[in-house]
Amino acid sequence: MTAFLTIIVLILIAIAIWQMTKIFEFSQIGIKDAQIANDKDNKLNGYLMFAFLGFLYVLTIFSLWKWGRVLLPKSASEHGGDYDTLMAVSMVLIFTVQLITQTLLYFFAYKYRGAKGRKALFYADNDKLEFIWTIIPVITLAGLILYGLYTWTTIMDINDEDDPLVIELYAQQFNWKARYAGDDNVLGDANVRFLNDFDGQNIVGIDASDPNGMDDVVSTTEIHLPVNRKVVFKMRSQDVLHSAYMPHFRAQMNCVPGMITQFSFTPTITTAEMRQEQDIQDKVKHINELRAERRAKGEDLDDWEFDYLLLCNKICGTSHYNMQMKIVVESEEEFNAWMKEQKTFEETVAGTDR
Ligand SMILES: [Cu+2]
């Protein structure tokens, strides 16, 4: 309702301004050449161009200073550093180039503003200039693309050499399930056709005729990862396009119905260690201050604690925003202890009808 009233008020203000301009225009009738820009108008517009340029940069720098802290904390995976460097190099380059070109654009708009008696110069072409402004972007972009491709292939180098932990991320509207490959570290075959087997207990559709699937473990609440061990995630989707996004590990991969996609990374910082980071502590403190304010107004809110997250990064439906799962990175002993508490597929379906 408030939003609706605000919109009405804004529309009324816009109409009022429009009406006032009309009145102003009528009052100008009779003054000769009121519609033709004179030197004073041109100069004013030239200065306004500079003002707009200044506004852009003041806004950019202010936003970075004021909201920079809501950006992601340092990367918690082995490849994350390479990714962040690529991002930083690209951003610095983009910012520098746009600073130079925008400044020139507005400066020329001012320098060659309209003036009485000034005529535009006819200038057909200049091969040398065209060569320069073609070759510089070509070299810069080719360099950036090659550097990006190199980083991408390094990150996407999924091999089984270092005995990675195999986990399936199963996406559906609107939740995640994680399937661990069990003692044999091999995922059993799976298909949506098996979802209704075993009184609906076969929640990711494991094929019971594949012996590899018997020791698989499905978690619906949390993903646990041992620190410093490579993980290979195999993604599946039950219904629509989803995207497995683990921002703290700089990882994202689409989950496509009908095919298995994959992403691999090595987590390097445990959840407990990450919670000790100054950056994270500041964030947590800030969020809990905001929560305390809302609690004071009667809202039912607990204090927040930092956790790694798996999020969905494709708008997949109405509850997309809530499609998330907690990730816990811990020591190998803690991980093994957690794993022991979980039920295997064989244990889960025991006693149910196929
Ligand atoms: Cu989704």
UniProtKB/TrEMBL annotation:
<keyword id="KW-1133">Transmembrane helix</keyword>
<keyword id="KW-0812">Transmembrane</keyword>
<dbReference type="InterPro" id="IPR008972">
    <property type="entry name" value="Cupredoxin"/>
</dbReference>
<dbReference type="InterPro" id="IPR002429">
    <property type="entry name" value="CcO_II-like_C"/>
</dbReference>
<protein>
    <recommendedName>
        <fullName>Cytochrome c oxidase subunit 2</fullName>
        <ecNumber>7.1.1.9</ecNumber>
    </recommendedName>
</protein>
<dbReference type="Pfam" id="PF02790">
    <property type="entry name" value="COX2_TM"/>
</dbReference>
<comment type="similarity">
    <text>Belongs to the cytochrome c oxidase subunit 2 family.</text>
</comment>
<dbReference type="GO" id="GO:0004129">
    <property type="term" value="F:cytochrome-c oxidase activity"/>
</dbReference>
<keyword id="KW-0472">Membrane</keyword>
<feature type="domain" description="Cytochrome oxidase subunit II copper A binding">
    <location>
        <begin position="162"/>
        <end position="341"/>
    </location>
</feature>
<feature type="transmembrane region" description="Helical">
    <location>
        <begin position="131"/>
        <end position="150"/>
    </location>
</feature>
<dbReference type="InterPro" id="IPR045187">
    <property type="entry name" value="CcO_II"/>
</dbReference>
<dbReference type="GO" id="GO:0042773">
    <property type="term" value="P:ATP synthesis coupled electron transport"/>
</dbReference>
<feature type="transmembrane region" description="Helical">
    <location>
        <begin position="6"/>
        <end position="24"/>
    </location>
</feature>
<feature type="transmembrane region" description="Helical">
    <location>
        <begin position="85"/>
        <end position="110"/>
    </location>
</feature>
<dbReference type="InterPro" id="IPR011759">
    <property type="entry name" value="Cyt_c_oxidase_su2_TM_dom"/>
</dbReference>
<dbReference type="Pfam" id="PF00116">
    <property type="entry name" value="COX2"/>
</dbReference>
<feature type="transmembrane region" description="Helical">
    <location>
        <begin position="44"/>
        <end position="65"/>
    </location>
</feature>
<dbReference type="GO" id="GO:0005886">
    <property type="term" value="C:plasma membrane"/>
</dbReference>
<keyword id="KW-0186">Copper</keyword>
<dbReference type="GO" id="GO:0005507">
    <property type="term" value="F:copper ion binding"/>
</dbReference>
<keyword id="KW-1278">Translocase</keyword>
<keyword id="KW-0479">Metal-binding</keyword>
<dbReference type="InterPro" id="IPR036257">
    <property type="entry name" value="Cyt_c_oxidase_su2_TM_sf"/>
</dbReference>
<comment type="function">
    <text>Subunits I and II form the functional core of the enzyme complex. Electrons originating in cytochrome c are transferred via heme a and Cu(A) to the binuclear center formed by heme a3 and Cu(B).</text>
</comment>
<keyword id="KW-0679">Respiratory chain</keyword>
<feature type="domain" description="Cytochrome oxidase subunit II transmembrane region profile">
    <location>
        <begin position="64"/>
        <end position="159"/>
    </location>
</feature>
<keyword id="KW-0813">Transport</keyword>
<keyword id="KW-0249">Electron transport</keyword>
